């Protein structure tokens, strides 16, 4: 019992230390923003590598997200006896408010967050980050700031695509599998669509992107040991980002979408 | 009396409660070529990283040109770091860049040189280390010795006053090690720099330095000339320089 409590206490302390470390990195990131224009080329590089190159994956998952949400909506409507012409309303709301931002962010955390941690972690254990510092180059401005900015910008950008593609996916399944016409689906979607939902979804996506970038960079910088250390840091990065996304998503739901 | 270029004053450093440096003090004058020797894991690289503030002491201080590194702001620290070049143990080349980009990065980021001037300096430094034709290669295509030479070219790119060598010959075959040693000696003379090397390769140490410091159990055990080191009757020093398993130094 005592050792279990001790273990729990140790985990609690290390969580607080992590939060403190991330806060310090956040502060350094803010300070490094004065080098924004100097690092513009690096930001563009990261925008392409982290964001644009994630687009095919986001498109693929979004088609299936839209498709399954239409199918599940039809299944539940049938179960409760609701008319199927509401399917466009249901898919539209679910995709724009929840599914596109949250699932895109989770996939982005798996692809990009893990990639950032593995890259920076390898740079840390092979002394490349020390080498940058020894040359008088601030690694926060050179490595961290461009990645966080790219994540912050590109998750909302990807969510715009994810919304569009998921609605198309839902439309295809509705027309082919559920026998609802495209006009009915789209009129339902238009009926339920609110610009504020879209904007709130994109705000959430921006926060998720920032979180993925910050956690990815922090865990990369904290990596110790060799290949095992890099693997461990990468796993930790994805776990923290994913849990963080879901926790923040709930907080956003309570704040932005009043019931 | 002139102030030593680098002053390490009563530096203590511990990792996870384990003391590594236990009150190390060392003055290094301009123009000296000093080698810090000692067993693997005795804190040689840790000491070297304090000189460029990659690590900060738990107690004590490190002064460069009379200024406490711990009290410098980021801008001042950057200025000091640009006067120091460092060759890392694993060369620490940026694997996303070509050899030429690696060598020129510090110059480019200092924003004090035009593109043509950077190209010229990079070509000159690569020629100095015998790698003029490797400019467009990626670090992954290079052998261990070539990587060290690129690391060396990168370290000297900004014409530093001080060069720090962290295990410059570790992991290299004897012939390549000797090539690196010759290169270090030649560059030290040609560039008129102060150098601090850490190594446990005694052949390398005798070739590249005119002063030895031995670290043992977190403290300085010896500080003197190569001749004094050879003639020392300290059993710890003799065991280390002759490389005997039997003696007071136990492998942890």
What is the secondary structure topology, with strand pairs?
The complex is a heterodimer of chains A (259) and B (252).
Chain A: H1 2-32, H2 40-51, H3 55-80, H4 87-125, H5 128-134, H6 139-176, H7 182-192, H8 195-221, H9 227-256
Helix pairs in contact in A: 1-6, 2-6, 3-4, 3-6, 4-6, 4-7, 4-8, 4-9, 6-8, 8-9
Chain B: E1 6-15, E2 18-28, E3 33-37, H1 44-51, E4 59-64, E5 67-68, H2 74-81, E6 84-87, H3 99-110, H4 115-128, H5 144-156, E7 162-166, H6 174-191, E8 194-199, H7 202-208, E9 211-216, E10 219-224, H8 226-231, H9 235-242
Parallel strand pairs in B: 3-8, 3-9, 6-7, 7-8
Antiparallel strand pairs in B: 1-2, 1-4, 4-5, 9-10
Helix pairs in contact in B: 3-4, 3-5, 4-5, 5-6
The total of beta strands of chain A comes to: 0
Main sheet of chain A? Answer: none
* Rough outline of chain A: elongated
Measured as a percent range, the helix fraction of chain B is: 25-40%
Low-confidence stretches of chain A: none
- Roughly how many Å is the radius of gyration of chain B? 18 Å
Keywords:
heterodimer; A: 259 residues; mainly alpha; 85% helix; elongated; B: 252 residues; alpha/beta; four-stranded antiparallel sheet; 9 helices; 10 strands; 37% helix; 24% strand; globular
Could you please describe the fold and organization of this structure?
The complex is a heterodimer of chains A (259) and B (252). Chain A is an all-alpha fold and 259 residues long. Chain A has helices spanning 2-32, 40-51, 55-80, 87-125, 128-134, 139-176, 182-192, 195-221, 227-256. Chain A has 9 helices and no strands. Chain B is an alpha/beta fold and 252 residues long. In chain B, 37% of the residues lie in helices and 24% in strands. In chain B, the strands form 2 sheets. Chain B has a 6-stranded mixed beta sheet, sandwiched between helices. In chain B, strands 2-1-4-5 form a 4-stranded antiparallel beta sheet, covered by helices on one side. The model of chain B has no long low-confidence stretch (mean pLDDT 90). Classes of the chains: A mainly alpha (259), B alpha/beta (252). The interface between A and B is medium-sized, with 13 and 25 residues.
């Amino acid at each position: 019992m005592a050792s279990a409590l001790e273990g729990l206490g140790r985990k609690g302390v290390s969580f607080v230390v992590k939060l403190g470390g991330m806060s310090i990195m956040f502060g350094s990131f803010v300070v490094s923003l004065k080098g924004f224009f100097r690092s513009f080329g690096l930001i563009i590089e990261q925008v392409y590598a982290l964001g644009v190159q994630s687009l095919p994956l986001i498109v693929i998952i979004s088609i299936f997200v839209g498709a399954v949400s239409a199918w599940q909506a039809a299944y539940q409507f049938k179960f409760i006896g609701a008319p199927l012409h509401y399917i466009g309303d249901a898919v539209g709301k679910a995709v724009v408010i929840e599914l596109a931002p949250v699932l895109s962010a989770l996939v982005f955390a798996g692809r990009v967050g893990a990639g950032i941690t593995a890259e920076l972690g390898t740079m840390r254990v092979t002394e490349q980050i020390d080498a940058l510092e020894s040359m008088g180059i601030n690694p926060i401005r050179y490595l961290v700031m461009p990645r966080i900015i790219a994540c912050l910008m590109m998750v909302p950008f990807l969510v715009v695509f994810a919304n569009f593609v998921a609605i198309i996916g839902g439309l295809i399944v509705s027309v082919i599998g559920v026998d609802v016409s495209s006009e009915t689906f789209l009129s339902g979607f238009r009926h339920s669509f609110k610009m504020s939902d879209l904007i709130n979804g994109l705000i959430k996506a921006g926060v998720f992107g920032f979180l993925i970038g910050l956690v990815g960079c922090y865990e990369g910088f904290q990596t110790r040991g060799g290949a095992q250390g890099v693997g461990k840091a990468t796993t930790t990065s994805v776990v923290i980002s994913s849990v963080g996304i879901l926790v923040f998503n709930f907080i956003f739901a309570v704040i932005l979408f009043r019931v | 009396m002139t102030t030593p270029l680098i002053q390490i004053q009563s530096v203590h450093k511990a990792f996870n409660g384990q003391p590594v440096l236990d009150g190390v003090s060392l003055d290094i004058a301009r123009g000296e070529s000093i080698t810090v020797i000692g067993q693997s894991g005795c804190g040689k690289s840790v000491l070297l990283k304090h000189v460029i503030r990659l690590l900060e002491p738990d107690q004590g201080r490190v002064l460069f040109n009379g200024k406490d590194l711990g009290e410098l702001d980021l801008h001042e620290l950057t200025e000091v770091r640009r006067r120091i070049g460092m060759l890392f143990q694993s060369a620490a080349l940026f694997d996303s860049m070509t050899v030429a980009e690696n060598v020129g990065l510090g110059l480019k980021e200092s924003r004090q040189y035009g593109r043509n001037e950077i190209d010229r300096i990079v070509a000159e430094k690569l020629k100095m280390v015998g790698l003029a034709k490797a400019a467009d290669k990626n670090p992954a295509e290079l052998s261990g010795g070539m990587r060290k030479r690129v690391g060396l070219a990168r370290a000297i790119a900004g014409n530093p006053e001080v060069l720090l060598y962290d295990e410059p010959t570790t992991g290299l075959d004897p012939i390549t090690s000797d090539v690196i040693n010759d290169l270090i000696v030649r560059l030290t003379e040609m560039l008129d720099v102060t150098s601090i090397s850490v190594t446990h390769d005694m052949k390398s140490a005798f070739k590249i330095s005119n002063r030895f410091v031995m670290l043992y159990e977190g403290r300085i055990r010896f500080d003197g000339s190569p001749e004094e080191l050879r003639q020392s009757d300290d059993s710890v020093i003799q065991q280390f320089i002759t490389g005997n398993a039997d003696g007071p130094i136990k492998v942890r």
